[in-house]
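Summary: Need help interpreting a holo structure output

Steps to reproduce:
1. Submit the protein chain below together with the SMILES for NAP.
2. Request a joint structure prediction with the ligand placed.
3. Inspect the structure token block that comes back.

Expected: a single structure record containing both the chain and the bound molecule.
Actual: see attached output.

Input attached:
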Amino acid sequence: MKTSWNLKDRKAFVTGGSKGIGKATVIEFLELEADVLFSARNEDEIQNLEKELKKEFPNSFIKGIKADVTSKADRQKAFNWIESNFQKLDILVNNAGINIRKSALEYNEEEYRKILEINLIAPFEVSRILYPLLQKSQNASVVNVGSVAGSQDVNSGLPYAMSKGGINQQTRSFAVEWAEDNIRVNTVSPWYTKTPLTEAVFENKEKLERILLRTPLGRIAKAAEMASVIAFLAMDKSSYLTGQNITVDGGMSVSVF
Ligand SMILES: NC(=O)c1ccc[n+]([C@@H]2O[C@H](COP(=O)([O-])OP(=O)(O)OC[C@H]3O[C@@H](n4cnc5c(N)ncnc54)[C@H](OP(=O)(O)O)[C@@H]3O)[C@@H](O)[C@H]2O)c1
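--- attached output ---
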């Protein structure tokens, strides 16, 4: 098998690709010459990004579709699109995620179920429905976007932590079940990264100062710094790496200060 530091002709699907880490991943993949489909819920944002990227990458294939990862019909729509246009899937990035931050007793049932539905159950269902197309690749990589909140308490809400802890084990178990199909499955776990999801967190200057003090590299990550790790896991250069959780945290988890 010829391996190289690019994603030339690899067919990729990124959920939640219109903003933040997902958008940075779509751009990284296009720079590495993959053919990319991304999904999100906001139609205008999808159209605008697709247009912008078509201009920026005139020789690459880029397409956005409106599909909610929690909708069975939308997951089927994504499957149908990929089957008709790509015929197979080499790379799946389960990135779409949300958070609602409050203390455990304050959540109502609808709120915590929504977090678990988007962050934990949807990646399970998206991975399962796309399995036949990943199998067809004979050399596929699934990257789940977790969080440091899945391995330790970072005061970002208990349901979010549960969902990301669950993703870590979902990754390990899929990695073992699907190894015989040469489908690798890994998690990338970011610490605080500048995206629309965390805008409100950083507006709280006291909180921002505490985050920076807890981070040996002394700064918030850029979305592109998550995308490059996702891309490494997506390419053949990581061909013996599966079932792992790569923590991308500026040293936070190895420091007690
Ligand atoms: N930013 C951080 O500091 C940080 C840290 C740790 C982990 N993470 C994880 O990284 C991932 C991306 O986070 P982010 O910060 O980039 O978030 P973001 O800026 O809010 O972007 C989230 C993306 O997901 C899409 N999305 C949300 N719900 C969806 C659904 N039900 N179906 C389809 N698409 C959906 C959004 O578009 P629409 O709203 O149009 O659907 C958007 O494209 C998440 O899994 C998050 O938990 C982020």
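--- end attachment ---

Reviewer comment: The chain is about 45% helix and 15% strand. Helices lie at 20-31, 43-56, 72-85, 109-137, 158-177, 199-203, 205-213, 223-234.
Status: needs-info
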